[in-house]
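Escalated from tier 1: nickel (II) ion holo job.
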Amino acid sequence: MEVHHIGYLVKRLADSRDAFAALGFDVVRPVEYDPIRDVNIEFIANGGYCVELIEPASSGSPLMPLLKKFKNAPYHLCFIAEDLEKAKEEFEGKGYMLFRDIEPAPCLDGRRVVFMVNPDIGIIEIADKEPL
Ligand code: NI
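Tier 2 regenerated the structure:
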């Protein structure tokens, strides 16, 4: 599957953007609020590497426990699926556990995404190829 982005948890998105800018990353999709996950999200890229900066917007954000655990760190790779339901089933059959079931991702133009966990590689995200 094609890799879409690397999801990167950050404490302070603006500071992280500046630090990544010094490493050659440009903003490709400016910061937006995702009300489903209570996070601010911005996409930045350097060549073929697209990074999703994810900043919990409040202490109640479902991503806050992960930020406390991982600090500023990459924590998921996002892959593109031709057929999201089929990919979910296929990876469940390969021993992946469901972490967050299929939901729309407002910051990906409303494409749907699913988060799954593999005991050997951690969290992956799978996204629709196109917005529905
Ligand atoms: Ni992501």
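The pocket of nickel (II) ion is lined by residues 5, 7, 52, 76, 78, 125 (CB under 6 Å).
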